[in-house]
Specification:
Elements lengths: L1 H23 L12 E6 L2 E2 L3 E4 L2 E3 L1 H12 L3 E6 L5 H6 L5 E2 L7 H4 L3 E2 L4 E10 L11 E4 L5 E4 L5 E4 L3 H6 L13 E4 L2 H9 L5 E5 H10 L3 E3 L5 E5 L2 E2 L4 H16 L2 H9 L2
Length: about 270
């Protein structure tokens, strides 16, 4: 009787194992998330791409994300966080995607994957209206035979929003058209950087052109210098292992582009 019980227990254990393998396809299931929500991390202080409006959010990225969620049959949930926390949160799975006027850079591609480009942008330089600076080149002491800067003038301080493209570019060495770490002051938001410019704490603010126009329009005594400091492409970041979501987002972006809906949203906010 005891022997029969042992055999029966062994058979049941084997059947249980086989049943588990059949259900999982022979692999360990690591992601059983069947959520009907698409969680988007953003920094809602970046008009016209994302900003707070009443109790909710508005902007280019917000509307495009809403259409993507609709294509995916999910409900869009927006999490407003510090810009520098977006990539880390996407990496750890806290957020499904990051969408915040985010530029694709080689450094960021080491941590996350990016969707196809959905918009392009320009880095612009804001100065006070009475500034004698005509171009951002005026902040440098001189240029070498190849036309690259050789140094930065004394007293030049550049204000940026922390972890943004303006931060990355301007913090580089002068010979790479940056201003050096010591000459860059980082702020939590673009609005904080603009306020620092108004109070004379920085010589200029480098930020994306569309937010720059919004800040200048809403703040007396500022202007945007002629010319572009840098060109960039905006895309959506997702975790490296979430290849299916990336494919779904790219498919949605492709369909929305062909339908003319993305351009319509951009035209709505950028005249």
């Amino acid at each position: 009787m005891k022997q029969f019980a042992k055999v029966l227990s062994l058979v049941m254990a084997i059947c249980l194992c086989l049943s588990f393998v059949a259900c999982t396809g022979g692999e360990t299931v690591t992601n059983t998330d069947t959520s009907d929500k698409l969680i988007m991390a953003t920094n809602a202080a970046f008009p016209p791409y994302e900003y707070k409006e009443g109790d909710g959010y508005a902007g280019i990225d917000v509307e495009i994300a809403g259409l993507i969620a609709e294509k995916l049959g999910k409900e869009l949930v927006i999490e407003d966080v510090d810009f520098g926390a977006i990539i880390g949160g996407v990496q750890t799975g806290k957020y499904d995607m990051g969408m915040a006027g985010m530029t694709v850079t080689d450094e960021r591609k080491q941590s996350v994957n990016f969707s196809n480009t959905y918009a392009t942008g320009i880095q612009s330089v804001i100065v006070t209206a009475d500034s004698s600076v005509a171009s951002f080149e005026d902040f440098y002491t001189g240029f070498d035979a190849e036309g690259n800067p050789t140094g930065v003038k004394d007293g030049v301080k550049i204000g940026v929003q922390q972890d943004t493209t303006g931060d990355i570019y301007s913090s580089d060495k002068p010979e790479k058209w940056g201003f050096g770490e010591d000459n860059v002051i980082r702020y939590k938001t673009g609005a904080d950087a603009v306020q620092a410019l108004k109070t004379g704490k920085v010589s200029a603010v480098i930020i994306d052109n569309e937010p720059a126009k919004s800040f200048v329009a809403s703040t007396d005594g500022l202007k945007i210098l002629d010319g572009e400091y840098a060109n960039e492409e905006y895309a959506i970041c997702v975790a490296k292992e979430d290849t299916q979501l990336l494919a779904d987002i790219n498919k949605a972006l492709d369909e929305l582009t062909k339908e003319g809906k993305i351009q319509a949203i951009i035209d709505k906010y950028i005249k």
